[in-house]
Design goal:
By secondary structure, this protein is α/β, with parallel strands linked by helices. Helices cover 38% and strands 15% of the residues. 42% of the residues are buried.
Length: 400
């Protein structure tokens, strides 16, 4: 790997800290700069889901790494945002600016001298950090978390089509995209996780020469007792086919078409499990849909274990890490083509030719009629090792 020292900036526990872990295991991580970092159980100031998220801000692989975290301030920040009832975009912009300011201050205090360094930061919270890095002559790498303005336009159209689902989505303010465009200009390299994201960025004018595809890493493994999966000779009212959707329940994920497909399949032996925070109005007429709410990452395992099919009909995703998590559990996938390339059509799952209720119904009816096909898909699941830290290290090593 390139022997420059890498400084890695990250808000939250994105991707289970895969990139800094890969760098640290290769001996190339100088520092991880993040908003919060504590062993499990250290955060008890926030109730509910927010408290659970802070409690997972740690990874044992990085126990010996140099970590710069601000701990108490992010807790106070989140509480202050609640008290002032800031809008979603006000919170996002304020959080990103808050983090960048503290990251820059830490760099100025702790990184002196002319040591060659590469600074890696995530889109939308990188501009001021990149400005500081460029003044020092460092190499800059932007991790692009989504397909950018192309995705926002897709989402805007969806909300116009499905107003009956009463979402609270609002487009990003222009200042958000102005900062992002400057980040792209300041970046020497831009990492995306799929061909879909690469094409979307190129369509917005980002220089193709800067863009490199680096798939996400996933090392989740299933317990031995969960493998191999067993499917019945046929599904029935007594043994229904369980279809799992796990993630943010929003129009961008194709949920409007999923719900329409569920209505079309109400008289067939199939049940949908909806796991995750919801941004939409919950329809009342879908009797074969169970809404189970958000769960912590540590609690998701049992839903992967109990499902028969994982449904991922996204209209746009930078990658879709849940696909890899499902495959770690040998769970067949029905997915769209607008995300990371995990599903090999007809091998470990099915790819939708389009994201529509009709296409989803056709795919799921095929699964209902041929449980043996699901058994084969499960047997051919992608090994997590194909998307492990070693694969990620190799991709990072190839950045010139």
């Amino acid at each position: 790997m390139n022997r420059d020292a890498w400084i890695y900036c990250q808000i939250g526990a994105r991707e289970h800290y895969a990139v800094p872990r890969a760098l640290h295991l290769a001996g190339d991580l100088d520092a991880l700069i993040t908003d919060a970092w504590q062993p499990p159980g250290a955060f008890g100031l926030l109730p509910g889901a927010a408290g659970k998220r802070f409690a997972e801000r740690f990874h044992a692989d990085l126990a010996g790494a140099r970590v710069a975290a601000f701990n108490s301030p992010p807790v106070r920040f989140e509480l202050a945002q609640r008290l002032r009832r800031a809008s979603l975009w006000e919170q996002i912009l304020a959080r990103n600016a808050w983090f960048e300011k503290r990251a820059v201050a830490w760099l100025r205090k702790n990184c002196s001298g002319n040591t060659n360094r590469t600074l890696l930061a995530y889109s939308y919270a990188a501009r001021d950090i990149f400005r500081e890095a460029k003044q020092r002559g460092w190499r800059t790498v932007l991790c692009q978390i989504d397909p950018g303005p192309v995705e926002e336009e897709i989402v805007r159209r969806e909300h116009e089509r499905h107003r009956h689902l009463a979402t609270t989505w609002q487009p990003a303010p222009e200042s958000y995209w102005e900062r992002w465009r400057e980040e792209c200009e300041l970046a020497d390299h831009i990492l995306v996780n799929s061909r879909w994201s690469r094409d979307a960025l190129e369509n917005t004018g980002v220089a193709a020469s800067k863009i490199r595809i680096v798939p996400l890493a996933c090392e989740q493994s299933a317990p031995e007792q969960a493998c191999p999966r067993e499917y019945p000779a046929q599904f029935s009212a007594e043994r229904t086919m369980s279809v799992l959707f796990l993630g943010q329940i929003c129009l961008r994920k194709g949920v409007a078409y999923l719900l329409e497909a569920a209505r079309m399949l109400q008289d067939e032996p199939v049940e949908f499990q909806m796991i995750g925070p919801s941004e939409i109005k919950q329809p009342e007429e879908t009797r074969n849909v169970r809404w189970l709410g958000a769960v912590a990452r540590s609690e998701a395992a049992r839903f992967y274990a109990d499902a028969d099919v994982f449904l991922f009909p996204t209209l746009s995703d930078g990658f879709g890490l849940t696909q890899l998590e499902a495959q770690a559990w040998q769970l067949p996938i029905v997915a769209s083509r607008f995300c990371g390339e995990v599903v090999r059509d007809g091998m470990n799952g099915l790819l939708l030719d389009e994201v529509s209720a009709t296409a989803i119904v056709e795919a799921l009816r095929g699964c209902l009629r041929r449980p043996a096909m699901l058994q084969e898909f499960s047997r051919r699941a992608v090994s997590p090792r194909a998307f492990g830290l070693q694969n990620l290290q190799q991709h990072l090593a190839q950045i010139p």
